[in-house]
From TrEMBL:
<dbReference type="Pfam" id="PF01315">
    <property type="entry name" value="Ald_Xan_dh_C"/>
</dbReference>
<protein>
    <submittedName>
        <fullName>Aerobic carbon-monoxide dehydrogenase large subunit</fullName>
        <ecNumber>1.2.5.3</ecNumber>
    </submittedName>
</protein>
<keyword id="KW-0560">Oxidoreductase</keyword>
<dbReference type="GO" id="GO:0008805">
    <property type="term" value="F:carbon-monoxide oxygenase activity"/>
</dbReference>
<dbReference type="InterPro" id="IPR036856">
    <property type="entry name" value="Ald_Oxase/Xan_DH_a/b_sf"/>
</dbReference>
<dbReference type="InterPro" id="IPR000674">
    <property type="entry name" value="Ald_Oxase/Xan_DH_a/b"/>
</dbReference>
<keyword id="KW-0500">Molybdenum</keyword>
<dbReference type="InterPro" id="IPR046867">
    <property type="entry name" value="AldOxase/xan_DH_MoCoBD2"/>
</dbReference>
<dbReference type="Pfam" id="PF02738">
    <property type="entry name" value="MoCoBD_1"/>
</dbReference>
<dbReference type="InterPro" id="IPR037165">
    <property type="entry name" value="AldOxase/xan_DH_Mopterin-bd_sf"/>
</dbReference>
<feature type="domain" description="Aldehyde oxidase/xanthine dehydrogenase a/b hammerhead">
    <location>
        <begin position="20"/>
        <end position="137"/>
    </location>
</feature>
<dbReference type="InterPro" id="IPR008274">
    <property type="entry name" value="AldOxase/xan_DH_MoCoBD1"/>
</dbReference>
<dbReference type="InterPro" id="IPR016208">
    <property type="entry name" value="Ald_Oxase/xanthine_DH-like"/>
</dbReference>
<dbReference type="Pfam" id="PF20256">
    <property type="entry name" value="MoCoBD_2"/>
</dbReference>
Amino acid sequence: MTTKLMGQRVQRVEDQRFLRGGGRFVDDVDPGPGVLHAAVLRSPHAHARILDIDVSGVLDVPGVHAVYTHDDLTGPMAEPLPVLIPHPALTHGRTQYALARDEVNHVGEAVAFVVAEDRYVAEDAVARIVVDYEVLPAVVGIAAARAADRLVHDDVPGNLGARMEQAVGDAPAAIAAAPHRLELDLEIERSACMPMEGRGTVARWDRDTDRLVLWTSTQSSTGVRAAVAAKLGLDIGRVDVITPDVGGGFGVKIVHPWPEELLVPMAARALGRPVKFVEDRREHFVSSAHERGQVQHVEVGFDDDGRLLGLDVEFWHDHGAYTPYGLIVPIITSTQLLGPYKPGAYRVAFSSLYTNTVIVTPYRGAGRPQGCYAMERTMDAIAGYLGRDRTEVRAVNFIQPHEFPYDHGLIFQDGRPLEYDSGDYPASLEKLRKLIDWDGFDSFRRECAEQGRRVGIGLACYVEGTGVGPYEGAHVHVETTGKVKVATGLTTQGQSHETAFAQIVADELGVRFCDVEVVTGDTRRMPYAVGTFASRAAVMSGSAVLKAARRTKEKALRLAADALEADVADLEIVDGVVGVRGTDRSIPLGTLSVLSNPLRYAFDEASKAATQFSVGDAVDRTALPVAEGEQPGLEGTDFHSTPRATYASGMHAAIVETDPDTAEIRILRYAVVHDCGHLINPMVVEGQIHGGVAQGVGGALYERMAYDESGQLLNASFMDFLMPYVSEVPDGIEIDHLETPSPLNPLGIKGAGEAGVIPVSAVIAAAVEDAEGFPVTAMPISPSDLFSLREEHRS
């Protein structure tokens, strides 16, 4: 029998291509001869009225083919971009135009679009455009937005895009009646993801067929396809969107469409030549999306054991100048904040505020790091107040294994009940205590103190809603060579889909792993999909791939039963060959592929071999070559939907050292226990955790968006925006797994893509606080921040 691949550490098939320089990103796309290049004029002001745009100095520049401003846009292209996820609480949703009309609301907003023979000419032409601005006061930061003495949008009172509240029980009353009460004020600053390749789009218009081909670095090929078709007035069937290798997504590429994804194909159609745009690094800083920024106020009531009796959370969320992605981030914060705990009575309210800064959309973790930070800082504060061990306070509040499914009584970001499907939080905590040697830390601290060193330990727990709907699909096709082609509509940007999905198909269909090829993000191969985000790909597409492979297998067995004159129950598929158990009678899947599509001619070796099964006395000559209800081809298509999200969970712990003189923070050990249900490939999951922890370290210690009061981003380059190098990421992250299968999908899996990043800020804050002996309430924390905190504490 073929060895099962599910759960095995199969080497990634993607690696060789990338390691040898074979990656093909948007900038590598060759759309054909005559490609033109685009550049964008972006606003230098955070808030200003556009009084006039003079492009006369550009029109005669040699090599310039077109210049567009908002006045040149017509029909749907001249309308605001869509609010992708409307919500009743978003009472004042606003989105930008493809090119600014009348007003700009953040530095970097697109004002004009130039197409030229090359990027150099396009950039030079952009510099010649003269815009007359009336500069307006800028609203920067949550405090300024709340003060509302200046407005981002004149028609949005108080800069308030939305206010939303959910409650279970009477939290204020429960807190007032509790034996113990605490209040905390917490803050997390803005950050942003930095993919290797930023946003990029290439378009080619075929005038002979009225067909558009678009290559774009996106997390939602089908979403871009629908948006482009709608905005350009095209039949969706005449738009093909192809996503090549994506050099990092992390959420910033889930917006669909970005202005350039509309302007590039518009220009390609108008000019009759391919057009390419790839943003530069500064453009990514000032015109792509940010996340994280929140101010939080927590009130909690608890008993002598630290058991939560009431929890009341209010927070203010900075969503930037526009709201294309609705309220997804703050809704996730408000619901995922609860983690693995039973909160007693719970009330949460948030205000989502406009500022004259770059838009906010999900960034790996998508609101969960902020929620985890609020809850875990609260747990640490309770433990400190009571003088109890931090793990004990958490354990007493855990949802217990026998309580699943556990309904919190809230509504999650997908509009479904916040109902956890499975988990074993006490078991995870016990694993983590052993992995980090929690009980032995006091001895280690004493040893370090004798050497003049300060060390601290921290932990944090989280639950992550994954695998949100509404659906994903997959197509599996066995070719006459016996090779298996798998197509799924979602995109891939480092999640090892080519490996993991091939493992699923190889197991289910009984073929060799090396004979399975997976294609993602090509609407020509799979036109129906949602996208890769929210840790949903393995849950949704993995399940769809399994179902499609199962359909293909069922058809193969039916065909083989006829060809081999055997009962389906007596057949098995091993290494791509269907055989009758206990005999030497067999038929390759490639031959069955020919039989499933009975062409008249023997055009290759496979079709010649198939003739022995389609002629002779044994064959019923009156039977139809394709049975009623069947379709030609050995293939299967299926879709997976889910009634609600699956809920992965995990716990992280870290030991840090803080330098007594320089206040530098160094991570000595980092441990992770993770539960994403059944593991398809443990090595892939661990790679996702490693990457997530690295991003979490960046968010906890280095990365922040530093705006001045006029809305200028002061650190919009890698000279000034700090990211962790390999020297700053914990060496040898220790990982242990727990598997509590989800009952909501046939694989029993839960998502893993964002797990590594979620609790890191909470863990590092707790460890630094433990080392220093005073509260840490704002993240990220730099050496200068820690030095200032020390000075404040001394005074």
